[in-house]
Amino acid sequence: MQAGVPLWKWALRKIIPLAVLSLVLPACMTKTTGPTEVGVRTVKIGIFKKKGVEDKFYPPGGTYFFLPYVNDWNTFDIKLHNMEMTFSDERGDRKSRDDLLFKTIDGNDISLDVIISYRIDPQKAPFILQHVAPTDEELNDNIVRTVARSSPRDIFGELRSEEFYVSEKRGEKADRAREELNQILNPYGVIVEKVATKDYRFNPEYQKAIEARKMADQMAEKNKSATRAAREEYLAKLEEAQGEINKMVAQADGEFLKAKIEADAHYDQQQSIAQAIEAEGKAEAEGIKKLNEALSGPGGEVMVKLQLAEAMKGKRILLLPISGGGLDLRTTDVNRLLEVYGLKSLQSQQPPTASK
Fold first, then answer.
1. What is the pTM of this model?
2. Structure confidence by residue, pLDDT tens digits, 83-97
3. Parts of the chain belonging to CATH 3.30.479.30
4. Max alpha carbon distance in the chain (Å)?
5. Which one, 93, 127, 272, 337, has least CB within 10 Å?
6. Topology of 81-202 in CATH?
7. 66 forms bridges with which residues in the sheet?
């Protein structure tokens, strides 16, 4: 008890709130939030709180106590929601055809299956309750579905018919659709996480024309590939032939160089032989010159005689009478004469035969 405060006043301050609490607690209502839910309270009668939607949210997985009749309670599921709009009536949000119908930029009718993945921003749950929708279903049907079926049509309608066959093109438009949906829905407390496309369908006749064209394009691409392969094969063979030609040229150059080296070596050899013969001839000529000089000198006649004597050594000498009334060598058959003298000589050398 504080000093200077009367006892009865202190007692009233402590007892009255406890008494009120003991009367109120039994009449309180219990409110809970699931593991993925947030709660929002609305004050209907402003006794302790300002009347209206309370500007706060109650976190998931909690239990809360409020006075009955003067409070209302709403919850919003903040898990990821998938709104699937498909052609099939056996799947998706609706049990009927629910895909997006629009025209491509080149004027062809197309239907597209789309899945919008979104979640609720828990911080904006009070704003959603007060200004947008009181439940998840109404938020989905009246806001998310309405926007999701209008904005993506315009974005995907910017594609040409052939571009729907290119997944990258569809992916680019899906990312842009997500961005534009967030620009529209974020102020309403909705965050779009992903826009995904699934199947798409053209008018049957146009579908056939597109498929025929794709087949023609595939065939053209196949022919282009075959042409490129043939060109590569030709270039490879050309390169191989060029290699063979280079090899033959190199061999011819090698043979030519080898023949040139051998010819140069033979030429050098013959030149050396010619030089040796020339030197030998010069030496022999010089020797003859020296011999002539020697023969021209005082002892030359003696040297000639010695040479003649050396040459006549061991030879038979036959003397023929050629003076006076003897032989005339100008008219005599010397060979016949020698034969006659030779026969006579042989006869003189034969031994005498015995007489009977």
1. 0.54
2. 999 988 888 778 888
3. 81-202
4. 218
5. 272
6. Tetrahydropterin Synthase; Chain A (3.30.479)
7. 29
